[in-house]
């Protein structure tokens, strides 16, 4: 794991030089030319997707990447910076999604409902995160992993059982506020060949909120608070001996992470105009998050960007390739089964194990080693 | 073993060994508490037997994990895969010997079950040895990496099960004479559940004997408390650990067989599903404590059964509530294991 | 002169980022009791743990009984005939007194006469024979720890601060027990803070400071030389009576 100074540095000292970009990035620059280029390309592509590609699939993929960047970055705050493993991240993701879905479907498709739904979801997430943290982190950090797994599973079962509220396995489809509907037009004429409609506004809403939350997370990990988290991760007992209240810090980190995941869930639901167990709550999304953060690079924040972008793209396009490979090998025993598109988790799992062993810094760690 | 006789009889005023009875009383207390809510005594007996059977199966699946943790501070999130693997291993027996399950002969049926258990334990012991060597050994000492890597191992093994046996659920038949129930008046006890209770109890008693009456058992208990001192006494704890890891995997395989016949369906994810209960149980019991694991298993299963009968909606979160209450009462679990 | 039973030469030990031992040299002659003295944090415990292989020496050599044990594993070192009583005693509190001793005897049942001899040294253990060792008092745990170390004949005993925190009466009976052990010909390396106990027992004395050996010689010389006591240990025997 790449670690910066284990002890809190004076925040202002690290931020004195540099311009507005440095300030936006909280002085935590990519520190590798290749990484900078990749990050800038991802940013530029995401910012311009609606104008660069036609059709709904590329924009959908881009929106998903934005949401997952927030989701994975907030998970990195726990895994990479605090050194604790949570399996309840999708629960908070789901709470955000259900908050929006229930408010818009059951109350009214207005901005007021968006606000109420988000606020209720954020409140619930905060309460749950505090309860889980205080219950489990008091004793051992591994309790936290097991308890989050148990609570998340119960939450998933609950969501599918309480169908009169959540829509059960089918989930909830709903209408967005009028300004975000495809029929809504800002200008009557297309701009650069693209119609500025409600769908496009919805994309830029997702993009802008994701960007703001990501930058906020970047600021948090580079604040004195973030430095203390890392000090705890490096040596829990020493941090405790220095007078830091480990449980309080870790619980706070888990609350912040949960809130960001809730926002991501709300964005996901807004974009899809739907929320159900499979889009936000399922355990396989939890595994996806783990893969993205580890492959991108734990404890770097930028790893989340690369991991999410790579993974979502691969999910959309690599499986097609595997399908072709599997078909080509038909007739040979077992082999076609192994590269069947349904088996792509097998290879990701293997990649994941190898990453944890061999490249604990993930792609970002690699790029920073081989700088410039 | 007990060739060292006590050098003298103990005087009467000796301090007595302190046994922590309180957690043990929880189980009967819970049963009594549930009785008025359940109402009919016969239903209560049926629910209790079902709960005990469930508890025994959870215990089988959880005991290995808690020992591995206690002994080497290794937390294996991939433990559930041995449960699935054990369950699927029954196919190796049920395939060629499908006829035995249909015969209405208790002897043949039990032999089939026994054979399934043997094969499953063999397969999972082997898988455990590989898992320990390939997945776990490189990450001794780091909980974070252990959780990640064993989770990765779980994903890969689950996918391999899919690749080998297919992704769709596979029905398996419960042997003929284990179907149905024993009926005593109003009381109905499903036969298979009684078998599960017997097997679970036998394993628990066997483990207690092993842990308390043999040198290996003493070493394991000593190792849970202070592995460094065990090494300083000249024992190679690594070897002991690998054996316990393998034995724990085999026990999970045994639990997997029992669980598979109980559900009568195989899915690769079945291990992971039940792992949630397993984790709750070992947290409640106190990480590393076999006795605590036993009490915790019964507690969780009984609560699930009673609550499931009284207020089905609550059953979903009853386990979490039990865990929360226990942790508020004893933050380290019912039987905290002294360490170092 | 024959080779000493244990010989450390130029031993350095690092624990994480900290450099604890800075080239430790000393010898423990067979059949005698060597005291290892020094202030808190001088490196005495680290020295014992390094000999035991619980921490790996980063350089230097440790020879025991004619062979190099520097890089051997802890169980192998124990099997070559060294018994270790750590400062925290390492009692298995969940096991009975009997079971603690059973485990210490690797090669099978403890010899009846030897057991009688041990229980003669520490009669209190007899009374708690079948009770969990967690019920023992601090002094009784210390007795059990030493009983465990001598459950079978060993070539060398490493004992870390056996009198720490014990009541004076317990310290005296502990000193008696060590006298008896010495008389039976055991080789002992004893870490002590209690200079009174040390002076009563030691044949040789090694003094450490700051991860280095600052003095080694006969115990009687150190006992006789008040100035040297003051210089090496910052105290004199009189103050401790």
From TrEMBL, chain A:
The keyword Membrane is annotated on this UniProt entry: yes
Coiled-coil regions listed: none
Keywords: Cell membrane, Membrane, Transmembrane, Transmembrane helix
Primary site of residence: membrane
TM stretches of this protein: 34-53, 85-104, 110-135, 142-162, 201-221, 242-271, 283-313, 320-339, 345-367
Pfam family, one: BPD_transp_2
Compartments in which it is found: Cell membrane
Its membrane topology: Multi-pass membrane protein
Matches recorded under InterPro entries: ABC_transp_permease, LivM-like
Database matches in PANTHER family: ABC TRANSPORTER ATP-BINDING PROTEIN, HIGH-AFFINITY BRANCHED-CHAIN AMINO ACID TRANSPORT SYSTEM PERMEASE
Protein name per UniProt: Branched-chain amino acid ABC transporter permease
From TrEMBL, chain B:
Membrane topology: Multi-pass membrane protein
Location, primary (coarse class): membrane
TM helices/strands, residue ranges: 21-38, 44-69, 81-102, 108-135, 147-172, 192-211, 240-262, 274-307, 314-331
Keywords from the named record: Amino-acid transport, Cell membrane, Membrane, Transmembrane, Transmembrane helix, Transport
Localization annotation: Cell membrane
Highest taxon listed in the record's lineage: Bacteria
Family: Belongs to the binding-protein-dependent transport system permease family. LivHM subfamily.
PANTHER family, sorted: ABC TRANSPORTER ATP-BINDING PROTEIN, BRANCHED-CHAIN AMINO ACID TRANSPORT SYSTEM PERMEASE PROTEIN LIVH
Name this polypeptide is given: Branched-chain amino acid ABC transporter permease
Species for this entry: Microvirga arabica
Upper lineage: Bacteria, Pseudomonadati, Pseudomonadota, Alphaproteobacteria, Hyphomicrobiales
Automatic annotation (TrEMBL), chain C:
GO function term, MF aspect, one: ATP binding
Stretches assigned to the ABC transporter domain: 6-235
Transit peptide recorded as keyword: no
Pfam families the UniProt entry points to: ABC_tran
Gene3D superfamilies for the chain: P-loop containing nucleotide triphosphate hydrolases
Domain of life where this protein originates: Bacteria
Keywords: Amino-acid transport, ATP-binding, Nucleotide-binding, Transport
InterPro entries: AAA+_ATPase, ABC_transporter-like_ATP-bd, ABC_transporter-like_CS, BCAA_Transport_ATP-bd_LivF, P-loop_NTPase
Name of this protein: ABC transporter ATP-binding protein
